[in-house]
Amino acid sequence: MASAADPLIPAETVAGPADPSGEARLDPRFARLRRFAAMPPLQALRELDSSLQGLDEREAQERLARQGDNVLSAMSAHSPLAHLTRAVLDPFVVVLVLLGVVSALTGDIPGIALIGALAAISCALRVRQEYRADRAAAALQGMAATTTTVLRRARPGAAAIAREVPTDQLVPGDVVRLAGGDVVPADLLLLRCDGLAVSQALLTGESLPVSKHAALTASARAVDDAGAGVTLLEHARLCLLGATVVGGSATAVVVATGAGTYFGMSNHDLPDRRGRSTFERGVRGVSVTLIRLMLATVVAVLAVTTFSRDTWLQASLFAVACAVGLVPEMLPVVVTTVLARAQSALRAGGIVVKRLPAVHNLGAMDVLCIDKTGTLTVDRLTVACHLDPLGRSDAEPLRLAHLNASFGLQHADTPVADAIDDALIEHASQSGITADAYTARQVLGFDGTRRRATVVLRPAGQWDRELLITKGAAEHVLACCTHARIDGRDVALDATHRQRLHALADRLHTDGVRALAVAVRTRRATGRPLRPADETALTLIGYVGLLDEAKPSAAAAFSALTGHGVRIKVLTGDHPLVAARICQDAGLDPAVPVCGHEIDALDEPALAALARRTTLFARVDARQKARIVSALRRAGHTVGYVGDGVNDAPALHAADVGASVEGAVDIARHSSEVLLTGKDLAGLTDAVVAGRHAFANIAKYLKITVSSNVGNVCSVLAASATLPFLPMLPLQILLQNLLFDLSQLSLAFDHTDPAARQRPRTFDTRDLSRFVLFFGAINSLADLATFAALHHIAGAHVTPAGQALFHTAWFVENLLTQILAVHLLRGRGGTSGWSWAARPVIVTSAVVILVSLGLAATPLGAAVGLRPPPAVYYLWLAGILSVYAFVLVAAKRLYQRMFRTWL
Ligand SMILES: Nc1ncnc2c1ncn2[C@@H]1O[C@H](COP(=O)(O)OP(=O)(O)OP(=O)(O)O)[C@@H](O)[C@H]1O
Ligand SMILES: [Mg+2]
């Protein structure tokens, strides 16, 4: 029912027509929204052809068919055409097409056919992989979709029932209910509300919650009519898509959905305040390194080849082919495959990863911040004691706390699950406490900054008196108290009293019992809405002690994570003493806890330095949690965050990877990329290990492939400088590159060394360059040995047949040394340096070996200019490969000893 303070139908009458000049100054796209903002509730409902009972199901279905789903934008970036376009614009394909054009000019039909086939294979692989990743993502999105509480009637005239409807099925005219933790699902006009506070951080960047109310006051109307001053975002009666409910509850009617919302029309997506995550930064670093290498290659090859005698066209094509040959073309495919495999493995273990890069970030994370209540603890509070201000057992604080909890819940439109309120109500029902003698007048819900909740009740039979009951965190309630009730008398509090009362609370806190203070005030009944300022001049009645225990899985999970190089930090709104006790129970050493107010004065570097050495932050609110996470990230850490509450949403959003646990409120789930579907924290270690396994395989592919490719370029340079012809034809370079890269795809399925999963890892461009140059040089030495052997076999290779022999010999040797390198370098290796790869890697390697040895004898080989070399060549080849293997293993040992790292 509507209360007197939040009248459903305000006393004021309908506003006159809007001032046309004012309207003209405003953005015409939002005229409709502004009109609704100034409209009395019933008129708005009429206009939307709805009622206080909401829509009936058939009508809702028809509107949905007409209006479309309530989603912001179509997934246009993911259409098959978009995938194809991206695949075709890949540099590898572009060069192939260029080569195709040249072949067409020279009338080389087999060349064109081969180039077409290569381009098609490359595009098809890429499109297929991206498409599959998309489908998986869409399925997960469905799993993670949120629902909204909507009033709907089964038939016209039937009674309305509140039920959960997927948020994308909302239509204009739907009557919805909001509660703390909800994401505002569409553009809404408030019909009634109770202490509603919303955060519009995602919309405006302003993190402080703003309060909203349904009343159509004269001032709101005047502002609307003038069309100046208040923006739609600031408008008190509108809740816009993308905002989140921080406290209170409301009933509202949907005015616009999907693309028709303020957001949809402003034509911008939710801004991402997260900044680049570790994954994005890493990929960027790698790309920049590769691009530099490519540019250097083009210039160097061009310089050398034009000095020697080729035509400009041939020389430039050759240079570009070398540069493209340098690129690990399959990198996007390998990354997606590897991450998607980890994603599906985790899903089988009950961990849903919404975005693929989150898998990498889980593996890279070196700091994990977690929230205490509900995440670290079991979130089943029990009442441990109830004490009067002198510390004697007394039932009165419990009775009043129960009244506060049960009326708070009853009065809300949609009760939010609250562990404290649940515990109080359950305990009261067991001890026979009832709430019969009162009726609720007003409620001021809990929020994480005040850390109190207040209700105003009217005792039965007393029309002019009201009883205000406040419960909340001990210090925060005591601060509002002027008296304490001791043996039925109200005693004024002096400094000594206060000190004793704090000491009493801290005695509970030290035992891990959270002290909830309960205070009251009686006042004459007023019609004024309840405000935080009314929580004053209270009389303390006593404390209720609540006990919450650490999850049994926590200690083991933390020690596993610490063993994997992840440091744990606890960020909680609870009291430092309680939190410290829970930390100890979970096997963490809280050392010196830091409180929220201590960090407000610190700038970011100072906060980061403090956060590095602090394990426990207590009494921190949502904004402070997010600041700590951002400061740690800015200081170079990869930060994960696990939480479940409204006060965790900004931090989840600010972290490199956010995870929410089972039972988390909508906004927490919404802000997370990872959903732990169990209560257990053990899954976190699995997720970290899966992320590292995935990363290890990506790093393997990247380093081995690029080092081989760099080696080739060095050899090409050496050969071009000394030979009177091109050391390998552009098409041959590309074919060899494609064959090798295709076989490397299987590294996505390889196993990894336990040592590679022991520490957090992320892309490190210095490490990449070092590895690539070191092993590239060795690879090139093998090539040079081949050149020398060829020189020995065939003398000068100036005849076309001699050139073809040279090309073939190098083609085969190159592929074989690369495959050998994969198997010798892919694992840390024991004393021999050898470890068996997973079966897919062995199979693809075998295929490439057979193809490279046999290709020259086939028509396809002939088409690309290869011809079978003499038998003696194979003897030389065997010798070179044996020496190469020996040198490679020695180099690997040297590298491991010099840099104390591998892959
Ligand atoms: N429903 C409530 N009514 C009154 N007081 C509450 C209520 N919920 C929490 N409090 C008080 O406010 C304090 C802070 O709560 P807040 O939600 O910020 O953090 P928390 O749930 O204790 O911890 P965490 O941040 O780890 O989830 C609590 O320790 C408690 O004393
Ligand atoms: Mg919490």
UniProtKB/TrEMBL annotation:
It is an enzyme of class 7 (translocase). The chain crosses the membrane at residues 283-305, 317-340, 771-793, 805-825, 837-859, 871-891. Belongs to the cation transport ATPase (P-type) (TC 3.A.3) family. Type IIIB subfamily. This is Magnesium-transporting ATPase, P-type 1. It is found in: Cell inner membrane. Keywords: ATP-binding, Cell inner membrane, Cell membrane, Magnesium, Membrane, Nucleotide-binding, Phosphoprotein, Translocase, Transmembrane, Transmembrane helix. The keyword Transmembrane helix applies. It catalyses: Mg(2+)(out) + ATP + H2O = Mg(2+)(in) + ADP + phosphate + H(+); ATP + H2O = ADP + phosphate + H(+). InterPro entries: ATPase_P-typ_cation-transptr_C, ATPase_P-typ_cation-transptr_N, ATPase_P-typ_cyto_dom_N, ATPase_P-typ_P_site, ATPase_P-typ_TM_dom_sf, ATPase_P-typ_transduc_dom_A_sf, ATPase_P-type_domA, HAD-like_sf. It holds the Pfam family Cation_ATPase_C. Its EC number is 7.2.2.14. It is a multi-pass membrane protein. Gene3D superfamilies: Calcium-transporting ATPase, cytoplasmic domain N (3.40.1110.10), Calcium-transporting ATPase, cytoplasmic transduction domain A (2.70.150.10), Calcium-transporting ATPase, transmembrane domain (1.20.1110.10), HAD superfamily/HAD-like (3.40.50.1000). Mediates magnesium influx to the cytosol. Residues 35-108 form the Cation-transporting P-type ATPase N-terminal domain. It comes from Dactylosporangium salmoneum. Residues 1-23 are annotated as: Disordered.
